[in-house]
Structures are given as structure tokens and as C-alpha cells.
Design goal:
The protein is α+β, with helices and mostly antiparallel strands. It folds into 3 domains: about 80 residues, Ribonuclease H1, N-terminal domain (Ribonuclease HI, Chain A), CATH 3.40.970; about 70 residues, RNA polymerase Rpb7-like, N-terminal domain (Dna Ligase, domain 1, 2-Layer Sandwich); about 90 residues, Nucleic acid-binding proteins (OB fold (Dihydrolipoamide Acetyltransferase, E2P)). It has 4 helices and 20 strands. The strands form 5 sheets. Strands 7, 8, 9, 10 and 11 form a 5-stranded antiparallel β-sheet that branches. It is an enzyme of class 3 (hydrolase). Its cofactor is Mg(2+).
């Protein structure tokens, strides 16, 4: 599977198909992009050639990817195969900038709290969403910034990260329904499902409150706040976020409660 790295374009990032990549570079002056065999190589290209790229310690690099229906996690502990999840605990680094007024007996506690505040809930295209910091491995010696008085503390920590993959089946909560499709949230991830990716026997009903998609027999209904099961068919990744495209056109996808009832009756 090829990966297209866009270091200079309308939206920098790594794309898993040429059409998405072309949308970012076609007609864009001074575009810079390249095709790679692995997402690791693609992200290194973005990091090294993009003004929005970020530098990461090579010892703490970790990337989850899917190959032959398996997920491999590469990082400090080598390569581990067989995982079928999109959340992982990986080693990361972050720098905390601290004002002199915090220098005191609670200094380390302040550094830890600022780490939680600054990294939890953030998203990078390379690692996905940082769900939670699990452990703080090391707080390095502070480096005084010349002429400022501020001190930078390098922190090494482990965090649970979440990154979706093409072909993955996930549970989601519907947030919006309209004639062009529906939007759903998978934790911090936003996913759009086009009406072309909704089974043909389900029609949009705008005249009911709330608006919904309903089957012809009216036994299956999907509306806002419903829990559904969907498959990821594509992702758009840039330097600061991830957006997914999903489908309900497969077995046992759609309204999760209805599918549970069907399975129990079999």
C-alpha cells in the first residue's frame, strides 16, 4: 500500500491514496510531495521538509499500522504483532516551559500538571489522539532560557494514543443526521457517513422529529444520539488532526441495538 507525503500543499500530512494527495498539491505553487512504501518514511519526509513538521526523538518513535489484517506496533520495545486495537501505550517526549514564579517545593508537581494539561486531548497526525498520560518516566534538568528567566523541562512519558485505520470496525455515537448523510463521533474522532454508504433500504425522513434514516419496514431507525457500528473506509490525516469517512454497507453494521437483537434471535 503506497503512502503519499505532502510537505507543502493545501493541507500537509500523509494520505493513503493518490486522489486525496492530488487535491492538496494540484495547482498549488511550490508544492512538495513524494510517494513512500511505509507511513514511517512518509512522516519522516513531512517532518523534515514541512514548516509545520515536528521533530521527534528517534528512540521514542512508535507507529501503529495495519498489514495482512494485523497491527504492528513499533517503538522502544521492538515490533509486536497480533494487536487488533487502535489504542496503544507509547513513549513520547514533551517540553514544559515554566515561569520563575513556580520555582518552589511544588515544582515537580507543577511540571506534571502542566504536562497533563498540554498533551492530553491533543492530536498529531503521526500518533493520533493522546487519550491519557499513563506514567511519567523522567523529568530532565531544567534549561534556563537566556534573557527570559523561563525554564524548559524535557519530560519523557508514556501515554495511551488512539489512531483509526482503514477497514476497522468501531462503535460510534451519531451526532447529526441530514439528507447528505450523518456525522458520528468515535471518542475524539469525527466520522462522516455519506448517504451513498448507507443501505439503500434506509431512507432519510426529514419530516419526523428528530430527523432520521429509517428502513422501509420501519424496524431499523438511526437518529442523533443512537449508537451505531461502522467501518472506516478512509482517513484524512494532517499535522494537527484526523478525520474519518465511514460506511454502513457491510454485515452487522448500523444500529448497534438492532444488531444485538438480531444476533440473539439467531
Amino acid at each position: 500500500m503506497p503512502y503519499y507525503a505532502v510537505a507543502s500543499g493545501r493541507s500537509t500530512g500523509v494520505y493513503d491514496n493518490w486522489e486525496d494527495c492530488k487535491d492538496q498539491v494540484h495547482g498549488y505553487s511550490h508544492n512538495k510531495y513524494k510517494k513512500f512504501d511505509t507511513p514511517d518514511q512518509a512522516w519522516d519526509f513531512v517532518d523534515n521538509h514541512s514548516s509545520r513538521g515536528q521533530s521527534f526523538n528517534t528512540n521514542s518513535k512508535a507507529l501503529a499500522y495495519r498489514g495482512n489484517n494485523q497491527v504492528a506496533l513499533r517503538g522502544d520495545q521492538g515490533e509486536v504483532r497480533g494487536y487488533q486495537r487502535t489504542d496503544y501505550t507509547i513513549s513520547l517526549e514533551h517540553e514544559i516551559l515554566l515561569h520563575p514564579r513556580y520555582f518552589g517545593p511544588q515544582l515537580l508537581d507543577t511540571v506534571k500538571q502542566k504536562l497533563y494539561t498540554e498533551v492530553e486531548g491533543t492530536c498529531t497526525g503521526k500518533y493520533g489522539f493522546v487519550v491519557a498520560v499513563t506514567t511519567i518516566d523522567n523529568i530532565g534538568a531544567g534549561i534556563i532560557q537566556p534573557g527570559q528567566g523561563f525554564v524548559v523541562y524535557p519530560v519523557k512519558y508514556k501515554a495511551i494514543v488512539f489512531r483509526p485505520f482503514k477497514g476497522e470496525v468501531l462503535d460510534a455515537i451519531v451526532t447529526q443526521v441530514n439528507k447528505v448523510g450523518m456525522f458520528a463521533e468515535i471518542g475524539p474522532l469525527s466520522c462522516f457517513i455519506s448517504h451513498h454508504s448507507i443501505p439503500e433500504d434506509m431512507q432519510f425522513c426529514p419530516n419526523v422529529n428528530p430527523a432520521c434514516y429509517k428502513s422501509k419496514e420501519e424496524d431499523v431507525v438511526i437518529q442523533a444520539d443512537d449508537e451505531i457500528r461502522l467501518k472506516i473506509v478512509g482517513t484524512r490525516v494532517d499535522a494537527t488532526g484526523i478525520f474519518a469517512i465511514g460506511t454502513l454497507m457491510d454485515d452487522y453494521l448500523g444500529n448497534r441495538i438492532f444488531n444485538i437483537i438480531v444476533l440473539q434471535s439467531i
